[in-house]
Amino acid sequence: MATFQSLPGFREFYPEDCAARNGLFNAWRGAARRHGFVEYDAPVLEPLELFTEKSGEEIRNQLFEFEDKGGRKVALRPEMTPSLARLVAAQAGSLRKPVKWFSIGECFRYEKPQKGRGRSFYQLNADIIGEPGPGADAECIALLVETLRACGLDEGEFEVRISDRKLWFLFFAATGVEETKVPEALAIVDKWDRESKEELKKKLKPYFAAEIDAESIWLSVKNFRQDPMLWLQDVAVTHPHTDSLNVARARGEELKALDQNLKNLGVEKFYRFDFSIVRGLAYYTGFVFEAFQTVGTARALAGGGRYDNLLQRLGGVDLPAVGFGMGDMTTQDLLNELKRPLGGVDKPDVYLVIGSAAERATALSLVGKLRAAGVSVEYPLKDEKYGKQFKAADQVGAKLALILGPDEVAAAQIKIKDMRSGVEVVVPNDAALVANVREIAEKGLPA
Ligand code: HAM
Description:
Layout: H1 15-34, E1 38-39, E2 45-47, H2 49-54, H3 57-60, E3 64-67, E4 73-76, H4 81-90, E5 99-108, E6 120-129, H5 134-150, E7 158-164, H6 165-174, H7 182-190, H8 197-204, H9 214-226, H10 228-238, H11 243-264, E8 271-273, E9 287-293, E10 300-306, H12 310-315, E11 321-327, H13 328-337, E12 350-354, H14 360-372, E13 377-378, H15 386-395, E14 400-404, H16 406-410, E15 413-418, E16 424-428, H17 431-443
Parallel strand pairs: 1-5, 7-8, 12-13, 12-14
Antiparallel strand pairs: 2-4, 3-4, 5-6, 6-11, 7-9, 9-10, 10-11, 14-15, 15-16
The structure holds histidyl-adenosine monophosphate.
């Protein structure tokens, strides 16, 4: 017989996995709400052009795309940002600004499946639209920090590295790279640590004026990557009266404001500036940031940044935007490594033990009343021996067993057994029982 397996890079969620995922989603949702973000959602399947036009080269190559039965070219969303930009642009006139929205949803990328990366994964997205100043960037970065903390991570276990694509743009402009080509050049810089020096030299060379040799190009990019402030000082010496110097100085002020806002918001222990971060996506225009775990392998937990032109390009409205996406896989892996699971499988308050077929009618009517009162109840679906029922009560982790045998039914009573302590009492099977069971399940029976 043929056996079917799930596709490579797609996960199955058994109840324990689903419980962990829900725990993560609850932490994400709680943090986003505490920061005043409201939830939205969008379709998983979108017109192909939404992504071919707007995402970076890397994402374009990873699209799950096909033609639907109506002949439309469609793609499963690899990220949320283009859909969000379309949603907000479509109602830009009536939405109160700044828009602070978050969403939790499944995304799909045809990547090589490996630890921490799948072809289907979940992402928290949180974005602020309509505020150009660094206050919005700070709010997003603070939320990113607080979200990771809400997942149970602490100081020394992760850090957010912040960089600035605007400074990178100024650098490339000053070194003669055409503005429209800068995102491509940045995509090369994004792979700096993964490529050989020779490979980088070869890839960067075509973007610069022919007279600059590959070695000097490589060296100046390397230096800027290490410390853009040194480069800024250099420009001040070599081109003291240029416009780009004023722009660069103003940018320095914004960077300070971002830093100050983050300090004021109390997250100073969780971030640092690191200009080697440039981000792979083409639409980022300003500050960009990435969260990494700092225990074990340094994997990326989340990434984001400012994208001030995307709403204009997608929906014709000029609205600045900043936000981030956080995946479930690396965060969940890290929590597992640290043995800090977020939430377990639900356990019932009550397992109702039924003596025999004769008591089943009374038992089921009690099950109905208990559930209507908000108590979670499990019971055997067919007649079983007592021993088997107690074993089942134990296996599902019920807090209480309620026992209804012939003697209890005859006396309109019920026996309650606390499964944690073994303590038993017999009480009337009445409305008071239904009203009190939850509290007894929570607090336990007194010894
Ligand atoms: P991204 O860096 O492509 O940014 O993805 C953000 C996060 O999603 C990553 O740090 C990682 O946790 C997770 N992720 C991405 N691809 C995979 C994968 N194949 N498997 C598992 N996890 C993955 C974006 O997607 C931007 N749209 C984020 C954004 C929102 N920027 C502004 N607003």
